Amino acid sequence: MRILVSGTGVAGLALAVELTARGHDVSLIERAPEFRTGGTPIDIRGDALGVVDRLGLLPRLRELSVDATESGVFVDADGTAVARVPAEQISDSDDDLEITRDDLARVLTDQLPSGTPVRYGDSVTALEEPDGGGRVDVGFLSGHRESFDLVLGADGLHSAVRHLTFGPESGHARHLGVYLGISKLPPEGAQVPSQFYNYPGLMAGIMRFKGEALAFFAFRSGWIDHDHHDLAAQKRILADAFAGHTEWEIPRLLDAVRRDPAFYFDAVSQIHLPVWHWGRTALVGDAAHCASPLSGRGTSLALTGAAFLAEALDRHPGDHTAAFEEYTARQRPYVDFAQASVEEGADVVVPATWETIHARNASVGGPEAPVESVR
Ligand SMILES: Cc1cc2nc3c(=O)[nH]c(=O)nc-3n(C[C@H](O)[C@H](O)[C@H](O)COP(=O)(O)OP(=O)(O)OC[C@H]3O[C@@H](n4cnc5c(N)ncnc54)[C@H](O)[C@@H]3O)c2cc1C
After folding, report:
1. Quick check: 375 pLDDT over 50?
2. Out of 3.30.9.30, 3.30.420.40, 1.20.1250.10, 3.40.50.2000, which CATH number does the structure's domain 173-269+344-364 have?
3. Distance separating alpha carbons of residues 196 and 183, to the nearest angstrom
């Protein structure tokens, strides 16, 4: 089949790998002007490990993995370590694989047959199924028009394909009351663990892995209406949330955000939809069922969803509706579990009061080794 995949995140790339391996003719489209990089290391867990194993990628991904046992410490306003980040409470099992999003995306991209078309800087703006629904006619922001047998929306939390098929995001999003911001810092080389500072309702941190360093911000807030593609607006929102905070490393970290052309900022929200397909269009990954970064399972869900959908299309040749239904039935239990797992996550990352910060620190235990200053 001729299949359009919208989005080149983990879900879109994994889908393209699974579908091209089965002989489908896949075109990818990505709204960003180029391959997107950045973000914290992400986890591959549970049955998603089986997915990457079947693709023959597990040994390479293990080689590239990040050591999850060195997850870091919580510090006070002076940078003194006051508690240990509980890595063992975050992992499901010792088999969990933690890897940078960039490494995973690159390994998946390397699996694509050469010449797989990827169009950057474009977005789906219209989907129509004329003449009894034998194909989907797709309109693009660029003015281009093309027909496909199937359209698969793997375009993330703010999916354009979902908007066109199921309506505005506000009808399906459940905001969990937290926002995240992430920027690259210059590599530090220092052998110090990741550090995280909390003030009621705020977290600022430095994540360190494989010689890289990231500025990490989280803050509690109700829904903030803004353009998700307006980088300057996102930087202003973050600066406002941390205005007046000069303690610890916050000014240096905010400075890195101001200078970062690839700042990552998003709401910690979930997407809840009763169905993930309509006609010849289906949703995969965060577009269908974002569980939020607090679940630590978004990437695993993207991988299982891509595999289940590709396998279902194989098992139901000529019957995409039966394939979409089988995909949904297999994927739904994983999604329900992941979406239900976030309940206490915000209280660990951004406790709302000094009392809950102290209670969190007491519950996770003290740091095992003193932390040197990184200034
Ligand atoms: C740059 C980046 C950094 C991230 N960092 C973190 C992190 O630090 N922690 C965390 O928990 N999660 C992070 N995520 C989200 C995490 O990758 C996903 O939750 C998970 O991997 C599921 O992947 P996905 O492919 O469904 O969604 P995503 O990874 O969000 O990928 C969706 C892709 O679709 C593209 N897209 C969006 N709109 C359109 C459109 N209209 N047309 C075409 N393409 C479109 C996006 O640019 C993106 O490349 C990040 C995502 C991105 C894109």
Report:
1. no
2. 3.30.9.30
3. 15
